Amino acid sequence: MQPLSLTLKGFRGIRDGLGLDVLTLDFERLADGAQLVAIVGANGRGKSTVMECAQPFLTMPSRAAAGPGGFSYYDHVCLPENEKDLTWAHEGRSYRSHVVIRLNGRRRTEAFLFVLNDAGRWQPMRLDDGTVSDGKVETYTRCVEAICGSADTFFTSVFAAQGKRQLSTYRNAEIKTLLADLLGQEEIRTLGQQASETARLLKAGLTAVRQELFALDAESTRVAAEQLRLGSAGGSVTQGLAAKRAAQTALEVERTAHARLVAQRDQSRATETRRAQLLAERKALVDAGTQASDTLDAQAANEQRRLDRLQQSIAQRWAQQRARRQGLMSKRQQCLRALAVADVVQRAGTRLPLAERVLAQRLARVTVCRQRVQLLAQCEGTERVVVNQIAGIERDAGKAALNADELARRFGLTSEVPCVGTDLQGLCKLLGDAREAQALIPSAKGQITRLAREKAQAQRELAAVRQQRAALAEVRQALAWAEHRCEMARERASSFAVSAARRDEMVQARITLADIDRELTALGPGGADGRVTETADEQAERQQIAAARQTIVSQTELQAKRLGASLGRLDESLAALPAPFDGRQLDAAAQTMKSAGEAVAAAEASHLTALRDAQALEVLAQQAHVLATRRGSVAARVVAIETELGGWNLFARCMSNDGLIALAIDDAGPTLSGLANDLLLACYGPRFTVSIRTLVETGKGEQREGFDIIVHDGESGESKSIGLMSGGERTWIEMSLTRAIALYLAQHSGRRYTTLFSDEADGALDPERKRMFMAMKREVLRLGGYEREFFISQTPEQKSSAQPSRHA
């Protein structure tokens, strides 16, 4: 695959780096026949965006989260409609990839692949299986992979993107899948996948057949249980027939007995008619007597209610008088209790003015004491201020004394300096300092004198303040005693005021007491001996009620005598009649006959059930035979499917990554290792050699399928996994391996990529290794017959060693 021209529209990397919405590059003109082409520019100028868009796959590998499938163009474009138009060549044919990414409204991506026909016109790519590139991402991807191979192989072998995944980080299944694609094992892997799918379908079918077998076993178990349950069906038929005949005989006996009792009932109907007539007369007589008795009882109840109302009226009147008397007596007691403190109230009214004058005097005394306490607090505050002032003056005086001593010491040096009286005395700094101190001594002494005067003045003020504070030393105790006496006077005045306020209450109590005594006199004694006195009207009504009740009692006795005589005559007539027919015997006979009929029905049902069970037993025997035949057939199918499943599982394993593909990788391993070692030897010297292992040792010392790249160090004589190498060493060894894979593809698989890509792959190398890295690029181009490599590097030596350097 070789890029010819590229047009990008709306890509963020180009807009952010170059400030352009559209960029067009003609790789053929820019490369001008060079093999190593460096894309040069400062960081963030869009170099990686250009390189990663110069290939036909729908991904930008350095931006993909996890391989080509973990990428989306939507995060890397900015216009409502964005385009990538790439013209490229592969194996003598020209292709054009046109990708449109839309962000206006609903997100959508369209991808078209065109091929240049013999007439020089672009036409949609069509595969041999009929797939046509119609703008869908899926058909585009299938067409590109049919031409260039899988994206994983392309980005592992010929395109080294920034931050590409290193081979040492691939898991066993991933690296074997990649190497299988490199070795052209797609057909074997396809056969393995088909075998796995066949095994999966066989396993699903085996599950269904086993479920059918389990269902047949369950049905056989059920049939056997039913046969066991119905084993005695033949004997049950005979027993049921005998029971049915016995029940029919018993039913005939009960029917005869019931007919005899019906005849007896018909004969006794005339007697029962006379008996019913007498009973009706007796009932009418009893009803009439009951009605008359109810009437008399109602009259008696009315008179009783009159008596109750009379007694209730008398009791209510008496209760009202008693309640009124009790209320008056209660009020009289209240008045007497209120008048009991009349002397106290009178005395409180007399002493209240004096108590108020005493309270006013003591309040004035409290005010004076509080003013003296405030004056004491001011004296204490002034004392603290003066003490602090004296302490500050003493500190300043100490500093002034020290300063005066220092000036005197400096002035004393005038007699000790050897340059005094010589020509050098004008230049001597010590002598100049001493003369300066001589000028400052008077001011220092003046400051000491001033501070002494200020201290004396402050001490006099302190003595005066302390004398004033001593005179006020007892004012706080005097204030507390004055406040205590004031509170006592306030409580006494309050008590007198409360008592004096009750004088009007005493006057009202005397008036109320006189009114109560007059009303009690008007009520009279009021049944002091406990008896209730009735009025004349109440006595007359009581006599009327007693007479009416006596009349009702006489009528009740007469009515009872008449009713008793009539009932006696009717009872004698009823006793002379024959005994009545007992209907319970007829009911019992009817019930017995009904039970016998039910017994016959039950016996017939039991006999019918026994017949059905016998028939069902015959059907179950036939079902058991059919189930046994079907189970044998299904069991044979299970065995056949299990045999086929084992064969297909074995075939799928042989065609998997751990089977023939692993053997092919083992066969190709020395060739890949040899190519990588040739590159290492030609570019980096004989120090490192690599080998590929598909069997790794477990912790138990056993061998298992795996993948590891072992690097042998010729200087130390040690061998270790590539994952344990340093970052720089791992970089050039990984690059040697990936370029060896590209060489292997070019030499053995028949798939040739004429252009290589590398994006800042030398970042971890030192300057010497970077020069060797460039030499390896040339060696790869020579061994693989590649036409060109586009690379990005920030190393000046590599940029200068490329034939053209194109600045982005």
CATH topology name of the largest domain: Rossmann fold
Counted beta strands: 14
Average pLDDT reading? 79
Q: Could you estimate the helical fraction of the residues in percent?
A: 55-70%
**CATH architectural group of the largest domain:** 3-Layer(aba) Sandwich
For the largest beta sheet, what order do the strands appear in spatially?
A: 2-1-4-5-6-7
Shape: flat
Give the secondary structure arrangement, pairings included:
Blueprint: E1 2-9, H1 12-18, E2 22-26, H2 27-31, E3 36-40, H3 47-52, E4 81-90, E5 93-102, E6 108-116, E7 122-124, H4 137-148, H5 151-157, E8 159-160, H6 172-182, H7 186-229, H8 233-267, H9 269-339, H10 342-412, H11 429-471, H12 475-500, H13 503-523, H14 536-576, H15 583-654, H16 660-684, E9 688-697, E10 703-713, E11 719-721, H17 727-749, E12 755-759, H18 767-784, E13 788-792, H19 796-801, E14 805-807
Parallel strand pairs: 3-13, 3-14, 8-12, 12-13
Antiparallel strand pairs: 1-2, 1-4, 4-5, 5-6, 6-7, 9-10, 10-11
Task: State the gist of this model.
The chain is α/β, with parallel strands linked by helices. It has helices spanning 12-18, 27-31, 47-52, 137-148, 151-157, 172-182, 186-229, 233-267, 269-339, 342-412, 429-471, 475-500, 503-523, 536-576, 583-654, 660-684, 727-749, 767-784, 796-801; strands at 2-9, 22-26, 36-40, 81-90, 93-102, 108-116, 122-124, 159-160, 688-697, 703-713, 719-721, 755-759, 788-792, 805-807.
How would you explain this protein's 3D organization?
The protein has 808 residues and is α/β, with parallel strands linked by helices. The chain folds into 4 domains: 2-184 and 659-807, P-loop containing nucleotide triphosphate hydrolases (Rossmann fold, 3-Layer(aba) Sandwich), CATH 3.40.50; 185-268 and 581-646, Helix Hairpins, CATH 1.10.287; 270-336 and 533-576; 344-500. It is 67% helix and 11% strand. It is built from 19 helices and 14 strands. The protein has helices spanning 12-18, 27-31, 47-52, 137-148, 151-157, 172-182, 186-229, 233-267, 269-339, 342-412, 429-471, 475-500, 503-523, 536-576, 583-654, 660-684, 727-749, 767-784, 796-801, and strands spanning 2-9, 22-26, 36-40, 81-90, 93-102, 108-116, 122-124, 159-160, 688-697, 703-713, 719-721, 755-759, 788-792, 805-807. It has a 6-stranded antiparallel sheet. The protein has a 5-stranded parallel sheet with strand order 8-12-13-3-14. The model is unreliable at 804-808 (pLDDT under 50).
